[in-house]
Structure formats: structure tokens, C-alpha cells
Design goal:
Blueprint lengths: L3 E4 L2 E4 L2 E2 H8 L3 E5 H14 L5 E6 L6 H9 L3 E4 L2 H9 L7 E3 L6 H10 L3 E4 L2 H14 L3 E8 L21 E2 H12 L4 E7 L9 H20 L6 E3 L18 H11 L6 E4 L3 H4 L3 E12 L4 E5 L8 H5 L5 E3 L10 E6 L8 E8 L7 E4 L21 E5 L2 E6 L4 H5 L9
Parallel strand pairs: 4-20, 5-6, 5-13, 6-7, 7-8, 8-9, 9-10, 9-11, 11-12, 12-13, 15-17
Antiparallel strand pairs: 1-2, 2-3, 4-14, 14-15, 14-19, 16-19, 17-18, 20-21
Length: 421
């Protein structure tokens, strides 16, 4: 569920007309619903009511400080993959003991900073990283709490570019090698083994891969305890999918997911950690764009809008599908037209929708690209010297710009021309 709906014939975010925001901010822009963010977090948290949990929102999904603070105020911790994301989480008010650090390429400088902040745990992804973390922690007089990320070689049945738990993926250590690496970790200075971690992918809509992976986590945790390791927590990662196609692809409810988790963790007396990102942020955000021109092709119509692949990369990068709604509900009453929705960037891959049956958009019409709150603004760029677009948050009847559109002068000022030119 999200809080974008038509009222008096105009699409609203909660109780604010998106046409009003368009007039005040200009297009294109991202718009996030505060009510949707908080609702999605609470639905996930409530699915585990009564269990000892630490829910660490995955910052990479949407890292705007206003989004992070909204979730922090709801009780969320954070999962970070860089020093920059860690600094964002701290700036948003997240306590260090509610932060976990993931990622295959942590630098020693990032480790030093994370240790100085006192984060909850590191998710270690390789033998080399483990050795580096040991050296850094010991040199600074720290103890680094760790879980080793295990790759179970399970197909999550998602897009190949967001699969992270198959044997050929770059993430984690093979399940067959995990026990040995844990034994090495226990003997290293500065390392405190405390958990097990697994994350098999993103946008997963089938519970079976989760069940298979979690059974392996249970097995490994039991073996490690037999080896004398202290296992206080199991980090189940994230990955639960969202309904990009509306009612056509409803993923499992968090309550169903929770049954799988709680079954795997039964009688283990562990804290349950999670790293949800997409399922919290995706449906909480949309991209609003204006039609510049239409062009009739031989078999379809091209609708050229002022948003482009540099604003929303997912369709080009992942062949992602986003619903497109007109801001004026009356436009839906017209016969549909086979349409490519494309942007102004000079790339054939610059599109937001292909071969889509859509209302007959005309120049000046406004459209909303739905389910764009995750991996939208965070993947944007200034390609073609296009300024990053604004981000807006709505709460009930008010809105605020939470990232302004930079001017061209500000954009150009980031470059430096050497004296000899």
C-alpha cells in the first residue's frame, strides 16, 4: 500500500496535489510519502513482534537524510556499505549500536572510522577483508564484532544484476569454506565473532529461496556453536520484493516472510537482524515528469519527457518495469496508445518505458512514474550536464524540498581548470 491517490481528479501525495508541487518545484522531481515510509517500516517490524530484532534499513536504497531520519524516528537501525553512508546514518540520528557495515570492498580507512564510531557489527565478505579488519582493530585497540557473510549458492529467482547469493556472484564466502574461516577469525586479534550473515538478492518474490538459505544458516550456526563460537545474532539480510506492476505481481507479505525466519531461528536464542531497503522505500516514492513532445513512429508513439535515464536508471540498467500514471485522472478515460516513454539524453537506452499501452499523453501533460522510491535518486547522475533533480517529502498536507535542484553555476563550479589552461 502507498499514499498516492487521485482526489478530485488530480493525483495527490497524501493530501498534497502533485500539480501544486510541480508548480512550486518544477519538473522532473522525486516525491516521497512520509506516511508510506513509516507504514512499511511498521508492517515489517510488527511481523516480528515479540522477537528480539534489529531492523537495519539498507541505506543504499534511498539515502536522503530526510528519509533516513523518518525511519530512525520510527526505530530503525541502518545497514551501510560505505563511510559516506555511515556518516549519513549518524547525521540522521541513528545510534552506532544500531548500524551494521556490509560490502565487499571496505577500505582500511572506512574500517578505522566505523570502529571509532562503535558500530554494532561488520559483515565480513572475504579472508582478505578479515585479515585487514583484524590488523586495523588491533592497531587501534578495538574489538570488531563480526558476522561472516556466507554465499549459499542459491538461485533467488530475481534479475541477474541483483542476485547476490549464487556461486558466481561476488558476494560472501562459499558455504563450504565458512566454518574454516570462522575458525581463523576466532584466532585473530581484534576480532570478536558474534553472528552469521546471508543476503541472497533483491526483489525476491518467492519464499522458497529464503527458506532454503535460512535452513543453511541454521545449520551453520549450530555447527559454529559446536566449535565453541559465540553466535549471538543471525543476520537474514533483506531482499523481499515489492509490487512494481500493481496487483499483477503481489510479493509475499512480511508476515509470511516472518514465518520462514522464525521457523529457521526456532529455539536458537539469537537476535534477528534484517536489512530491508526496497520493500520500505520503493512504493514510498514516485518520479514526476512533464511531456515535452510527442512523435509518431511507424508502429508506436514516442512520448518525450523531461526526465531521463540519468534521473531514473533502473529501466535502462535492469530492464525494470514501472507503472506510469497521468496526474490528471481524466486522461485514463481515453483509448490507450502503444507508447515508448523516452528522455532527452543522447542514448538509445534512454527510456522509462517501452511498448507500453498508455493514455494519449500530449505536450505539457504530467505523469508519475510509480514505485521509484528505491534505487532512483541514489543512482542518478549529471550525465549530459543535467542537474540532479529535486527530492520532495510530503507529510499529510505539507511538503518540503529535501534536496534542491542545483543551479548550472553550482554544477559547473565543481570542475577545476588548471592554471596552464
Amino acid at each position: 500500500m502507498h499514499h498516492f491517490a487521485y482526489k478530485d481528479g488530480v493525483l495527490h501525495a497524501e493530501n498534497v496535489s502533485l500539480e501544486v508541487i510541480s508548480s512550486g518545484v518544477g519538473t522532473p522531481f522525486y516525491c516521497y510519502s512520509h506516511a508510506t515510509l513509516t507504514r512499511h517500516y511498521k508492517v515489517f517490524a510488527n511481523a516480528f513482534a515479540g522477537a528480539r530484532t534489529l531492523i537495519c534499513y539498507s541505506v543504499k536504497a534511498n539515502s536522503n537524510l530526510a528519509v533516513l531520519r523518518t525511519l530512525a524516528q520510527s526505530g530503525s537501525g541502518m545497514d551501510v556499505v560505505s563511510e559516506g553512508e555511515l556518516r549519513r546514518a549518524r547525521a540522521a540520528g541513528v545510534a552506532p549500536e544500531k548500524i551494521v557495515f556490509s560490502g565487499v570492498g571496505k577500505t582500511k580507512a572506512e574500517m578505522v572510522f566505523a570502529l571509532s564510531e562503535g558500530i554494532y557489527a561488520f559483515n565480513v565478505e572475504s579472508q582478505g577483508e578479515l585479515a585487514a579488519l583484524s590488523a586495523v582493530a588491533a592497531a587501534g585497540g578495538h574489538l570488531a564484532r563480526i558476522a561472516i557473510r556466507v554465499n549459499p549458492d542459491i538461485d533467488p529467482k530475481t534479475h541477474k544484476k541483483i542476485s547476490t547469493g549464487k556461486g558466481g556472484d561476488k558476494f560472501g564466502v562459499p558455504f563450504s569454506q565458512a566454518r574454516e574461516l570462522y575458525a581463523q577469525a576466532a584466532a585473530l586479534p581484534g576480532i570478536q565473532v558474534r553472528g552469521v550473515h546471508m543476503h541472497i538478492g533483491s526483489q525476491i518474490t518467492d519464499l522458497k529461496p529464503f527458506a532454503d538459505a535460512f535452513a543453511l544458516m541454521r545449520e551453520l550456526a549450530g555447527q559454529l556453536r559446536e566449535d565453541g563460537q559465540t553466535i549471538e545474532f543471525i543476520n537474514f539480510g533483506g531482499g523481499l520484493g515489492v509490487p512494481y506492476r500493481g496487483d499483477e505481481d503481489i510479493p509475499p507479505h512480511p508476515d509470511e516472510y516472518a514465518k520462514i525466519v522464525l521457523g529457521a531461528a526456532q529455539d536458537m536464542n539469537v537476535r534477528l537482524l534484517f536489512e530491508p531497503g526496497r520493500m520500505i522505500a520503493a512504493n514510498a516514492g514516485i518520479l514526476v515528469a512533464r511531456v515535452l513532445y510527442t512523435k509518431a513512429g511507424a508502429d508506436k508513439t514516442f512520448v518525450i519527457i523531461d526526465a531521463a535515464m540519468n534521473d531514473l536508471l533502473r529501466p535502462t540498467l535492469y530492464e525494470a518495469w514501472h507503472e506510469i500514471w497521468p496526474l490528471r485522472e481524466a486522461l485514463k478515460e481515453h483509448p490507450v496508445v502503444t507508447t515508448d516513454v523516452v528522455g532527452p539524453v543522447c542514448e538509445t537506452g534512454d527510456y522509462l518505458a517501452l511498448e507500453r499501452e498508455l493514455p494519449p499523453f500530449g505536450a505539457g501533460d504530467l505523469m508519475a512514474v510509480m514505485t521509484a522510491g528505491a534505487y532512483g535518486a541514489v543512482l542518478s547522475s549529471t550525465y549530459n550536464t543535467r542537474p540532479l533533480i529535486p527530492e520532495v517529502m510530503v507529510r499529510d498536507g505539507q511538503y518540503a524540498v529535501i534536496r534542491p535542484r542545483p543551479s548550472y553555476d553550482e554544477l559547473l563550479a565543481r570542475d577545476r581548470v588548471p592554471d596552464w589552461l
